[in-house]
Amino acid sequence: MRRPLVAGNWKMNGSRASVQTLLSGILSGIEDVSRCEVAVCPPFLYIPQAQSMLTGSPVAWGGQNLSTEAAGAFTGEIAASMLLDFGCTYVIVGHSERRSLYGEDDALVARKFAVARDSGLKPILCLGETLEEREQGVTESVVARQLDAVIEAVGVEGLGAGVIAYEPVWAIGTGRTATPEQAQEVHAFIRERIAAQNEQVAQDLRILYGGSMKPGNAGDLMAKPDIDGGLIGGASLVADDFLGICRAAQESVA
Ligand code: PEP
After folding, report:
1. Is the distance from CB of 38 to CB of 246 less than 8 angstroms?
2. pTM of the model
3. Which residues' Cβ are closer than 6 Å to ligand 1?
4. Whole-angstrom distance, CA of residue 14 vs CA of residue 18
5. What is the set of domains in the chain, with CATH numbers?
6. Which residue, by CA, sits nearest to atom 1 of ligand 1?
7. Which numbered atom of ligand 1 lies nearest the CA of 167?
8. If you take atom 6 of ligand 1, which residue's CA is the nearest one?
């Protein structure tokens, strides 16, 4: 049985005051999360604040990116060891904004996944097609290419150390969610592709959906057999919305 994960990607949002308010709201409203996992990924600067507020709570925390390098003359970069130093469990790799705005290609994303995994972080690997690619009917080949790059780098067992997030780019931050059927189709494709190499890894691996997930659509998405939680952008910045999605994750497991 896979344990769903609800992970908040705060992107470049927040201030010390808003982080305090958001995390206090989450902590005071969080109910039974015994059947799921919950995490938030703040901007780097707010990770120490998250650590001090969340230690001992059911909410884990992580980074939104990491360097492929261990230390040294890499201005502006953050190493895996630094994330671990501040108690991070997770790190997002290959988010579509990193791919499209910062030129991260499949090979770089695969190296980041490998570095995260080797250091003991759990990478959340984002995969997904653009609207143009969906309309051209190449969704599966795009997702397969992104996935295969990571399998080539770390092996299929190495992939099993992380989490996958299927995030159709056209659904991110647009308010336009994939239907549960559209999402399930791609999730099943991803799982089958992994199963062709290792059935056990495929059955154990969590595949999250990301793209305008809200409390109102989370339950229907997570009811699908291959959707094991969500990577949440906008709704993770509003405590009640994030908590509503956590509730849906908890209820999705009988
Ligand atoms: C994301 O950025 O990972 C995301 C899913 O954003 P949103 O929920 O706002 O679509």
Report:
1. yes
2. 0.98
3. 9, 167, 172-173, 210-213, 231-235
4. 6
5. 5-252 (3.20.20.70)
6. 233
7. 5
8. 233
Predicted confidence band at 1 (pLDDT cuts at 50, 70, 90)? confident
pLDDT in tens, 115-131: 999 999 999 999 999 99
Distance CA 116, CA 192 (A): 25
Q: List the catalytic residues.
A: 95, 167
pLDDT at 62: 99
Query: Residue 92, CB half-sphere, CA atoms under 13 Å: how many?
Result: 34
Distances from the Cα of 226 to the Cαs of 9, 42, 240, in angstroms?
Answer: 21, 27, 26
Q: Ligand 1 mean position to 232 CA, how many Å?
A: 5
Cα 15 to ligand 1 centre (Å): 19
111 CA distance to ligand 1 middle (Å): 23
* pLDDT tens string 216-245: 999 999 999 999 999 999 999 999 999 999
| Residue 154 scores a pLDDT above 80 | yes
